[in-house]
Write a structure and sequence with these properties.
The protein is globular. The mean pLDDT is about 90. The two termini are about 15 Å apart. By secondary structure, it is α/β, with parallel strands linked by helices. It contains three helices and nine strands. It has one domain (about 5-145): Nucleoside Triphosphate Pyrophosphohydrolase (Alpha-Beta Complex), CATH 3.90.79.
Length: about 140
């Protein structure tokens, strides 16, 4: 099973997220996904373009999430290099399907991240802490969610 690759994009003390309404739930997720035949880096860059409408440059691998019963995840700290935020044209935006719910790219102030339903929660906590303390070059690890 391929792992999910996502991005961590912070600009002007705000975090880029996807707001979701699905199956009666309201939550926020980090942009990302997976396709067969891609490296983690390629998947993260493609997903940023599809979901957010922007091109990003990977600064470094920030954190890996190892899960015992689900797909592992890896997240890259990135910076935007071009494009217009919110103009994604990925398949999730093409035809609304109630089964998959809604996708809305948005910016969330860093001081709101831990008060809102940002998932996965340990990743949100890691991002806030790293943003406050300074990003380390070595990759973080979150295990067994």
């Amino acid at each position: 099973m391929r792992r999910r690759a996502g991005i961590i994009l912070i600009e002007h003390n705000q975090l880029a997220l996807i707001e979701r309404h699905r199956a009666g739930q309201h939550y926020f997720i980090f942009p990302g996904g997976v396709d067969e035949g891609e490296t983690d880096e390629q998947a993260a860059i493609r997903e940023a373009e599809e979901e957010l409408g922007i091109r990003v440059e990977i600064l470094h691998k920030a954190v890996e999430i190892r899960r015992s019963n689900k797909r592992d995840q890896v997240y890259f700290l990135v910076r935007q290099v071009s494009g217009e935020f919110g103009t994604g044209t990925g398949e999730e935006y093409q035809d609304y399907n109630p089964m998959y719910g809604t996708y809305h790219p948005m910016w969330m102030r860093m001081d709101e991240v831990l008060q809102k339903n940002v998932l996965p929660k340990p990743l949100a906590e890691f991002v806030v802490r790293s943003h406050q303390e300074g990003w380390k070059q070595e990759m973080g690890l979150i295990e067994d969610l």
